[in-house]
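User: Could you write out the 3D structure of this protein bound to adenosine-5'-triphosphate? I've included everything you need below.
Assistant: Certainly. Input first, then the structure.
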Amino acid sequence: MDPINTLYPEEQERLQQTFQEIERQRSDIGPVYRGQDYVEQLLEAKREETRQRLDLLDNDPYFGRLDFQEDGKAAPLPLYIGKRGLDLKETAAPYVIDWRAPVASLFYSFTGGDAPVTYEAPDGTIQGEIYRKRNLSIRDKTLGRVVDSYERGGDNIGLNDEFLLYKLGDKKDNRLRDIVSTIQAEQDLIIRAPRYKALIIQGAAGSGKTTVALHRLAFLLYQYQQQIRAERMVIFAPNTMFLDYISGVLPELGVGNVKQTTFAEWALDRLNDNVRMAQGTVEGNVWFSLEGTRPPIDDETPGRFKGSLAFKSWLDGKLKDFEENFLTDQPFEAWEGRVLPGSMIREWFEVEYRHYPLAARRERLSARINRWLEMQLTNIGDPKIRKDKSKTGKQRLRTYVNKLPKADALSFYQSIFASGAEGSIPKKVLSGTQPYLKKGFVQPEDLAALVWIHYVFNGAENLAFDHVVVDEAQDVSPFQIALLNTFMNEPSFTILGDLAQGIHAYRGVQRWDELSAVFDEEHNSYHVLKQSYRSTLEIIEFANRILPHTDTGLPPAEPVFRSGDPVDVVRLEREDEKVPFIRSFIDDNQERGMRTIAIIGRKDQECTSLHEEMVRAGIEANLISEGQASYRGGITVVPVYLAKGLEFDAVLVANANDRQYALTPQDAKLLYVGCTRALHQLTLYYYGEETGLLSS
Ligand SMILES: Nc1ncnc2c1ncn2[C@@H]1O[C@H](COP(=O)(O)OP(=O)(O)OP(=O)(O)O)[C@@H](O)[C@H]1O
């Protein structure tokens, strides 16, 4: 008998019982309370949480079953694993187990074999044996596929992969999805890693880094529910469109309120929007220029220098000097003959207020001198003379305070770049920075230093994070990570990236040890994800040909065995063949059921013109440009640097010739990003000479 047919009725019955239990519990909660009683209102909040949990369960109650016999127990027990847990009303026995519970880790770590297995429970290690691992697909309350990926004593060949492949074959829309039903063992290790770690993860394109990070947040909230709050967790991602793209995953996992932001947005907020950003001409014209004309990247490249820990140390020295020389020994003379000695002012500043940050010390000092002035005035009996002296004293106090240096981040930063920096800051950095600062503008790479100075001057404003996720971390600097670390009592980070996609290497890292240098050994934890889940075997093997040209020394990504169509590289004879070619690419792929299709260009301008030509030819598509807040799916024209992090069913890389993608590591990284965005179909076209990056 077909195994599906034997498994199905049993699971169908269990599913019906689950729905009945959910319904029982829902009806026990009763209607929504809308009255004024405070205690009832508090209880209502709890009831609402339960209602929401039951709603989530009702849609999609579980996805897996594991028959596990704990040592010492008489028989195996079927454990049903879902996105949320459900205990039986009557006995409180677990009926559906939350995927984050310790025992559920067996579902992910188990890859077959009859050997005993263990998991870590709060009371210690539990050992036992697995008799069955079953995947169940339930959609819209209906049981779909039921597949046993392991049965004790059975032949169990490759079934583990079958369910994964079935999931990976799906066509995508405009949102990233959760992967709770198919988390792989190497991913699970990262998701369940202890809280106080700085996990640094090098993951191949499509290895699930972003997805894993989001699942890790859901896990941490479950595991440390008394100690961690969602609103004290933060995800840093490269741009707002990417944030929009990933915004569905946490709600699907039942997690709300986690702050999702970009580093620039967060930093500007810290600086109270007191600085103006220069418009991104340098990045576009210099670092993304064509024909291999980009400058080489080294430690004196402005972005890398200003993002280094060495720059931070140098800055710390300057901040210390600034604080030490903040006061001259100038006394304050309120009026002729009434003098507050400089030594007294210094005593207040250095001893009494030494625990306050500089800006607060400055403020307290001026308030203290003012109080001293008031005291002197009370000693004057004649009201007319008092009024007169008060006027003089207050005016002189204003002048005195105005002469104290300002504890303002931008002014301080401008001053250190304006004078005396020649010996310590490389010429390249000075010339790439001074012209902007003189006009009052800053660049993205200045923000870490500015927030740091602001922090030293003003203190941390109660901004402690419980956990920080940094996605696309190859584009961030050690200074940024060190800065974020100061907002936490103990490091708790998930830092993920791929050096082969380091298209902003002029301000990011070239090796992961640059970031790990921020943390002590005890907190450092480095992981590699080599397996790539997004793309077909053919696409991954094709992209792997580009990898050596990135000069990162990274090993090739490992595909899961999901085969698709071969990758096409098509030479067009003339430029005017381009639009008909794009049209047929779109039509073919739409006919094959592809929902998201991207035409990936090299630069913004090229994409704008391509989009205009397509629209003139009657092809509807969305153009993605810098600063865009959302990704709509469908047909998209996008410059490659903005496609990073996204994925599409079918990708057409536009004009992959040797001018657009020269034989340089930077261009190799761009082309690698472009090609690895495709799930099922990848095509490249060019006219002129094919890029040399495709030759192995
Ligand atoms: N265990 C898994 N089961 C099912 N799908 C998975 C799994 N892991 C990853 N995926 C899918 O692979 C795709 C890539 O995931 P994700 O975007 O998180 O990878 P990434 O490493 O951040 O990629 P990139 O660096 O290229 O942006 C997504 O569609 C995700 O759903």
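The domain at 537-686 is CATH 3.40.50.300 (Rossmann fold).
User: Perfect, thank you.
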